[in-house]
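Example for tutorial group B:
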């Protein structure tokens, strides 16, 4: 079992180095990453709530997105405190870090959790928007690795946490 985790960790590191990219590549992702940040996540929920006054058909998705974001972030913070994974720029050599360093732990990615928590309820309720929202969500998650603040498994775990939470919220 130890051998398997060592192998997975090594694959995670190798993939990290392939994604952690050049300066030009990183400037695009330095902008896109903010879509999963706390300010934009909260503002988008508030804006969507306001819009739902005029377009009541989106109200269930807005409520589900709010609940998914709230619950998933509570769980994400609990997992971060339990796992305490060191961020790649602190544990690996030659990482290209873009932006300011974070003080919390790496696993799972909060930005990935946030963007998927907000977009999945809309994708479930309005499948036509998948072609727009899924690529945006993936780009935000990918940006976290490009910028050097998360391993690929961190962003996958954040997306999975958000997906499970959003699906459970939508079923309830």
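The residue assignment follows.
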């Amino acid at each position: 079992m130890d051998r398997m985790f060592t192998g997975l960790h090594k694959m995670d590191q190798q993939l990290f180095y392939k994604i952690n990219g050049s300066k030009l590549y990183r400037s695009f992702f330095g902008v896109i990453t903010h879509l999963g940040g706390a300010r934009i996540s909260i503002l988008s929920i508030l804006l969507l709530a306001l819009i739902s006054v005029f377009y009541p058909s989106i109200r269930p998705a807005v409520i589900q997105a709010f609940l998914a974001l709230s619950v998933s972030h509570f769980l994400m913070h609990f997992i971060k405190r339990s796992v305490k994974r060191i961020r790649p720029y602190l544990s690996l050599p030659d990482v290209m870090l873009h932006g300011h360093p974070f003080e919390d732990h790496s696993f799972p990615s909060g930005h990935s959790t946030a963007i998927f928590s907000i977009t999945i309820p809309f994708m479930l309720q309005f499948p036509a928007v998948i072609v727009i929202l899924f690529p945006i969500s993936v780009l935000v998650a990918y940006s976290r690795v490009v910028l050097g603040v998360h391993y690929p498994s961190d962003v996958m775990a954040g997306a999975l946490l958000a997906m499970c939470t959003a699906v459970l919220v939508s079923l309830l």
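The two ends are 36 Å apart (CA to CA). Compare this with the pattern of hydrophobic and polar residues in the output above.
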